[in-house]
Design goal:
It is a single chain. By secondary structure, the protein is an alpha/beta fold. It contains twelve helices and 13 strands. The protein has an eight-stranded parallel sheet with strand order 1-5-6-7-10-11-12-13. Strands 2-3-4 form a three-stranded antiparallel sheet, with no helix packed on it. A two-stranded antiparallel sheet has the order 8-9. α3 runs parallel beside α4 and α4 packs parallel to α5. The longest helix is centred in the first third of the chain and has 21 residues. It is globular and about 60 Å long. The model has no long low-confidence stretch (mean pLDDT about 95).
Length: about 350
């Protein structure tokens, strides 16, 4: 059976050192040590260690083959978003990442599809790069962050009026949008126990979903194809509370959109990586089999270490498995199965 992982992070082995070029240590840089270790630094501090499978397409293909997964939909690592940077500087980084990704997809078309990255702090440039990704590079869409912190201290959630033209352009292009949590809320107040990733990350996805729903973005753009990574974070699992707030205090909640938020569980897409078989069953129950697709967060430790294990544990019939393993993904990407056979 064709299996497509729609949540697989990918970087080039090297990318432009914008920290040196622009004298700004906030840009992530890669250091390849004599000890054979590969480390990303940001703000002059160690951020994350990565491994050759982060950038080696052949190693990745072989790694996935162990689990019977043939296709990876590759996207950058969120630290590269750099929404705080000057738009032209961020665009220089995004252009390099997108060009590299497109090269990998062209070289291995049966094993890779790609979704690029855009400087969302400038909606005009974001639309320009989105169009280039889809029309010139042959990518299927773009990944964006759960919110946009700006250099001047302002902050945009995904319902910001400034972002609507970007979403409209994505809808018009039929582009797939992957919303990924980043720059997690509460990080400064909960630095211990990896809590930004364990607590803040799910909350970020609920923030993004609620803004798209309550802000009327999905209502105004019914053809917009948005997937929430990490199973939608806490959004599907707190929909009862969200709906209750909508019903009880419409004066506070239903100010920009009068449709019940629960309705949008059938409009959004979700990846399957929720780390709990019971949670995945619940997600299928509230969103539907046709809105969920395999996603692993490869190659990071917080991701699904055996791709597809959560789906296999559900004991679905062949039709249900096919939908989760490739049917929903092909619909979201706008691609035929023949691309990968």
């Amino acid at each position: 059976m064709l299996k497509i992982d729609i949540h697989a992070h990918y970087l080039p082995r090297d990318w432009p050192d914008l920290a040196a070029k622009y004298g700004d240590n906030r840009f992530p840089v890669i250091h390849h040590g004599d000890d054979g270790r590969h480390r990303i630094y940001k703000d002059g501090k160690f951020f994350r260690e990565i491994w050759p499978k982060t950038w080696d397409p052949d190693e990745r293909i072989a790694d996935y083959a162990r689990f019977g997964v043939q296709v990876q939909v590759i996207s950058t690592v969120p630290v590269m978003f750099s929404y705080w940077a000057r738009p032209d500087q961020a665009l220089a980084l995004h252009t390099a990442l997108n060009d590299h990704m497109a090269s990998t997809v062209r070289t291995h078309p049966r094993h890779y599809a790609g979704i690029g990255t855009v400087p969302l702090q400038s909606p005009r440039l974001a639309i320009q790069e989105l169009e280039r990704c889809v029309d010139q590079l042959g990518l299927q869409g773009v990944q964006i962050g759960s919110h946009v912190p700006l250099a001047n201290g302002e902050h945009w959630n995904l319902d910001a009026p400034e972002l609507f033209d970007f979403f409209q352009a994505a809808s018009d292009l039929g582009a797939a949008i992957l919303v990924h949590p980043w720059d997690m809320m509460g990080t400064d107040t909960m630095p211990k126990y990896w809590m930004p990733w364990l607590v803040g990350m799910p909350a970020e996805q609920s923030r993004a979903a609620c803004c798209l729903v309550f802000g009327g973005v999905l209502e105004r753009l019914p053809k917009l194809k948005v997937c929430l990574a990490h199973g939608g974070g806490s959004f599907p699992y707190t929909i009862g509370r969200i709906e209750h707030g909508f019903n009880m205090r419409p004066d506070l909640v239903a100010t920009d959109n009068f449709r019940n938020p629960r309705d949008y569980l059938k409009r959004l897409y979700f990846d399957s990586w929720v780390a709990d078989d019971r949670a995945l069953r619940y997600l299928l129950d509230v969103a539907g089999v046709d809105r969920v697709m395999l996603g692993t967060d490869y190659p990071f430790p917080l991701g699904e270490q055996t791709p597809g294990a959560g789906i296999d544990a559900l004991g679905l019939d062949e039709g249900g498995q096919a939908r989760l393993y490739h049917g929903t993904a092909l619909e979201w990407l706008g691609l035929p199965a023949s691309r990968f056979v």
